Amino acid sequence: MRSYVPVLLLILVAIALPVVIWGISRIVRPHIPSASKYSTYECGIKTTLEAREKFSVRYYLVAVMFLVFDVETVFLMPWAIQMKELAIFGLIEMGIFLFLLLFGYGYIWSKGALTWE
Amino acid sequence: MENLLAFIGRNMFLVFGLMAVGGAVALVFSKNAVHSVVGFLFSMLSVAACYLCMSAEFLAVAQLLVYAGGIVVLFLFVVMLVEMTKFKEKGLFQVQTPYAVAAVILGAVAFIGVFWSTWFGPSAAVPLTLSSPELAEGLNVASQNAEAVSRGLFAGYLLPFEILSVILLVALVGAVTLAKKERN
Asked: ipTM, 2 decimals?
């Protein structure tokens, strides 16, 4: 656990930095509120719609596909570090694992889920 | 002060565990669905730190990649799919309350059982050991836990590992079937 002290320090600096910057700007800046300052800023154009629109389901589909192949990559790791010891046995097992997922890849490709229409 | 710091140093698991619970409480009680997802992210990061405290580095990194990196994004997309402009969130998310209460009670009973056996039962198994001792031969399990995971996966849990790929395939096909319109 001791070897993670630098990571902890990094996290503390990352938390402290915005707090310090925000605190200094809060002390230094003039405070003159007005109605137009609190309105939604959209590149100077008047806002027309709500920001909380319904998003397309395609984003969800992309996220699921990412997640599946993400998990696949995580399981490639234990095989990769023991590749020499596992030898041909590991190769066959991993081959079955990858073939099934490759099948899924072919399926989503053939269904056109990879194209953004 | 020094005693307190030493105590925290010895009980990092407790600290991160409490942080994870805090994130989970924020997830359940925040009114805004996006804030809920941020609470979930915080909780998942704390759980990754908990794994680190148990010196399970491989699991911690996997937790960061899959949960904090992938599933949180998935949750955000689900939140975005719901039309927020009509402010029906409350009614929308509370249709499953009886089921949720039943699931929580079941989960609580299971957890209490685990805690009960840990505290009052016979002393638990030493952490980070493989199911069969011969697998750990020539391996320092405490510092080489990725290798330990690998040996466990390819020797003791080969069938679950292969079934996993089928489950991932089902997830992929299910997502496409649900979300993709047929091309004409």
From this structure: 0.73
Whether residues B89 and B133 share a domain: the answer is: no
A38 min Cα distance to partner chain B (Å): 20
A82 Cβ partners below 8 Å, 6+ apart? A90, B147, B150, B151, B154
Q: Where are the domains of chain A?
A: 1-31, 55-117
Split into its structural domains, chain B has a count of 2
Q: How far is B126 from B13, CA to CA, in rounded Å?
A: 16
pTM of the model: 0.76
B15 shares its domain with B64: yes
pLDDT in tens, B66-102: 998 889 988 888 888 876 655 555 555 567 788 889 9
The CATH class that applies to domain A55-117 reads mainly alpha
* Residues B167-180: tens digit of each pLDDT: 999 988 988 888 87
Residues of A with CB under 8 A from a CB of B: 1, 4, 50, 52-55, 57-61, 63-68, 70-75, 77-79, 81-82, 86, 89-90, 93, 96-98, 100-101, 103-104, 107-108, 111-113
